[in-house]
Structure formats: structure tokens, C-alpha cells
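User: Here's a chain of 154 residues. Predict its fold as C-alpha cells.
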Amino acid sequence: MAALTTLAIAGAASADPAPGFEFDPVALEQRLDDCLSYVSAPDAILMGWINLRNGQQRQWRCSSLRHMMRHDEPERPVHDPFVGLGDFMRCVDEVVSYGFPRKNTGVPWNVALIKQYQGTSSRAIVTVNELTGDIVTIYTEPRPDDWAGCVAPL
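Assistant: Prediction complete.
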């Protein structure tokens, strides 16, 4: 797992949050609540990463959370980070840091970062817009919101 600090970047880590962000579920929950209550702007960053190996930046914005919670498509099932927020943070960190990239055939500028777990029966997927570095969506399959399973030791 990546080291998450605000003051120092450990040499062995492969990713760290954007400056000012810590691995803090309480602080993230407040940012999520502000986003979903429309206190935050759609482009507000909820979590961010800098890959120390290649310098790539990834950011998860409020607009993505609103999409995941289906503010734009209420008839579709949600991808809910509140189902174990600490596990969600660790799962997304692992997928963004180490996930296997696969190009999206439907949207050529998107790439899915994939972490398989529980053998190969389950996957956590973070879709990233390669043009902007923004995370489009985050989910698990076949079990929705299986953040705990994603980070469970083998």
C-alpha cells in the first residue's frame, strides 16, 4: 500500500496523496458530505495521488462522487464509498497505485485500473480519464461496494 502523509514522501512509496490530503476517513467523509450537499463545487478534489515512479497525477473530484452516487442517473445502482470509508480509501489507493491498466474500448481516452482479489473472482476498478488525470468512477464487481474484500489480506 502507498504511504499517505502530508509532510514527507517516503522513498519506497509508489503514490502519495496530493498536498494537504491525509489518509483520514473522517476528513474525507466531511468532503464527501459537502460534495453531496452541493456545498462543494463539482471540480473540488476529494482525494489525489502522485505516482512517484512516473509523476502521473490522479484526482478524484466531487463530480465523480455525484456520478457514483447517481445524482445524474438515479435509476442506476450506486457505487457507495460510505460502505466502509476507511476500506474504500485503502482499496482505491491500492488500485490507483498498482492496478493493471486496460484501455476502455467505448471511451478511448479512459483507462481502467484493475485490481483482482479473492483469487480472480473479484475486481476493484478505477476508471481514469487519461487526458485530465481525473477519476471517472470507482466500483467493485461482482459484489457492489466490496471495499473490505478489496483490502482483505490473502
